[in-house]
Amino acid sequence: MVDSTGLKVYGNGEWHARKHGANKRRTWRKLHLAIDANTHQIVGAELSTISVTDSEVLGDLLRPLRRKIS
Fold first, then answer.
1. Residue 60: per-residue pLDDT
2. I want to staple 24 with a disulfide (CB 3.0 to 4.6 A). Which of 17, 28, 48, 65 is the partner?
3. CA diameter of the chain
4. What gap in Å lies between CA 22 and CA 40, rounded to an integer?
C-alpha cells in the first residue's frame, strides 16, 4: 500500500510570526509511505515537496524492495 501525508515545516521565523501576527508563507512537505499490507510495516519512505503525487515517487519507494533473481 502507498499513501502520503502533509507535514508542516517549522522554521525560526514561526515564533516571530505568531508573536507579531505577521502573515508568513508556510512551507509544507509530503511524506510518502510504502506499507506492507500483511505485516503493516513501513517498507519505504520518501520526502518531497507538496506538489509531488504518490504515483511520481512509487518507483523510488519500491526500488529498495527489488530482489536479485539468481
1. 86
2. 17
3. 63
4. 42
